[in-house]
Amino acid sequence: MRHPLVPLCALAGAALLASGCSPGSSPATGGQQAAASPAARVALKDPAEVGANELGQVPVLMYHQLTEKPASVYDRTPADFRAELERLAREKYVPVTARDFQTGRIDIPAGAHPVVLTFDDSTNSQVRLGADGNPVPGTAVAILAETAKKYPGFKPVATFFVNADAFSATGPAKALTWLKKHGHEVGNHTDRHQNLRSLDQAGASKAIAAGQQAITKAAPGSGVTSLALPFGAMPQDAGVAARGTGYRYDGVYLVGSNPSVSPFDKAFTPGAIPRIRSSGPKDQDAEFGSSRWLDKLAEAKNWYVSDGDPNTVAFPRGAQDQVAPAFAKRAKPY
Predict the structure, then answer these.
(1) What is the Cα–Cα distance from 139 to 285, expressed in whole angstroms?
(2) What is the DSSP string of 23-88?
(3) Against a cut of 0.85, is the pTM above it?
(4) Fold for the domain defined by 8-20+55-308
């Protein structure tokens, strides 16, 4: 399914904040400290030494179809995808899932930057397994694993926002089970990719709930906590996106054109998280695409830089007033 570019400012709904999705918090994990991890057990570095800024911006990248013959701005060749992943690895980005990003469970090495890799529409070019149960060469999951092997610090994890007919060449049950087993996140993209803004409240809620049910039917026990809006279209009642009968999401993702603020920043709105479309520097609408934004983040140095400790939120002292109240106890200004 192809998506028209939708202005980010037209998508964010203030009503979503009233639905229980408060900035900088998660219903389950908001102000709680992250669990101990290998990264937290190693000798920690002085935040100033690595220039830690965990209130910096985070790119949430959006992919759809990988094809040798791109037909729209949402298509990328496998070679382009591989090149972008390798660029991210060279620039010290480490993938985290949408689930971990939106709830502030960011556990990456000191000096590294988080990046969220998201895939919409559950196309076969993203996930297709061969007879041996392994990813077919040239698919997104295969290229992601190959990049991680080449760059050991680059985690091969991503979030796949799926529809009811997910990964038809492999079958939803087999594909979703494989994704979960290999550390990826499965998120909801509605059952039939409906434009939620064109539906009434009941219709929008039904489309979201049906997508949730399709996932849990294909892969029982799936804890689905993230939703990507088809076409980036917010429901008329924005609160329906995050809360409804049979579903409750910590993060709702737009079709946007800019990086997200840190989940620890009081300006973070989990009910309307912007994403950046993957694109080359000379592609159509390249100014809003990933290549240009990665350039801008590198030039401005306003990206999220980890201090290596998932239990603290480190940042230059002058940014103290940006910290969301839910994370105030974890604040570590320097």
Answers:
(1) 25
(2) TT--TTTTTPPPPP-HHHHSPPPPHHHHT-BTTSBB-EEEE-EE-SS--STTEE-HHHHHHHHHHH
(3) yes
(4) TIM Barrel (3.20.20)
Phi-psi region at 188: left, alpha or beta (left = phi > 0; alpha = psi -120 to 50) = beta
Tell me whether strands 247-248 and 243-244 are parallel, antiparallel or unpaired: antiparallel
Residue burial 111-131, b: 16+ Cβ < 10 Å; e: rest: ebbbbbbbbbbbbbbbbbbee
Question: How far apart are alpha carbons 6 and 277 in whole angstroms?
Answer: 11
Task: Give the whole-angstrom CA distance, residue 7 versus residue 4.
Answer: 10
Q: Domain limits of the chain?
A: 8-20+55-308
The reported pLDDT for the residue numbered 43 is 67
Task: Please name the helix (run of DSSP H) or strand (run of DSSP E) that holds residue 211, with its range, or none.
Answer: helix 201-218
**Residue 19 pLDDT more than 50?**
no
**Which pLDDT band, with edges at 50, 70 and 90, does 39 fall under?**
very low
Which residue, chain included where needed, has tokens 């799926």? 162
